[in-house]
């Protein structure tokens, strides 16, 4: 640059850029060492950090995923804790009725994991590893609460598991345990929508009739999808800043910060007549008014015993509670005996050794 005006303009640009970077660095409280993350500024309200990769998935968890993957690399998953065991076994009944024998239940606690093993579902059960929890896992290991009933804890775990799976070699079709699959080949139908358009990274159900709000009770995430990685990273960041916010609210906030296109965008919404939520199915009778039998029904507008009563009244409660409770008694007995044995071992270690004669 021999021209003096060009030189002055060039160095002014460098000075301005340095000033802007310095201002941004001063406002940012991010860790200094970020070797495995990419800094991305898009339309988000705050800068987000999207990991380039995550720690290697535990081999036992990866084995369960690969063992239960379907054609086109899709694995059906759900997430549950011990307090949700009756709802979970009801969900399993509908999976089996729809001829879906391959799925993975991610357990938030070891008690449910043991329950599934005793019930013969060892190949379909995985205990969520501790390093998948963004926050301390102790609160999420609590086995006394359902976590299904409007509890943000479960929705935090769902986001963390989804983030792990989007970096895995399988497409994850996550269903809540109060999603009832009514048709065979439902999975194939949803997979086809993912295959039709290469831009599609997320398939979800709607939470209303305005096609504006996603219901995260059903999500199909394409493996290693870059935009999906960013949305999940942003969802986690939003939930960490607002712990009382559930996954659905945080996920929609993340989506609203992106520029989405109906024809070329990353998201496809399933129609609400074939995939109704609880309000549209049980209260508004939307599918039946059109003469349509839904693929999946999401019973999400009632909570606790009110939901159970509703499902029983409408013949959606297929689980044998006596069967589930019988296994629960076995688990309690196993844990009781194990604790007694551990106490005996601890007492023996604590006893002083007798002096030799």
Automatic annotation (TrEMBL):
Q: Could you tell me which InterPro entries the record lists for this protein? A: Nucl-diP-sugar_transferase (IPR005069), UDP-D-xylose:L-fucose_XylT (IPR052636)
Question: Which protein are we looking at?
Answer: Nucleotide-diphospho-sugar transferase domain-containing protein
Q: Which domain of life is it from?
A: Eukaryota
Classification via Pfam families? Nucleotid_trans (PF03407)
Record GO cellular component, one term:
Golgi apparatus
Q: Which GO terms describe its molecular function?
A: glycosyltransferase activity
Q: Which organism is it from?
A: Parasitella parasitica
Nucleotide-diphospho-sugar transferase domain residues are: 102-306
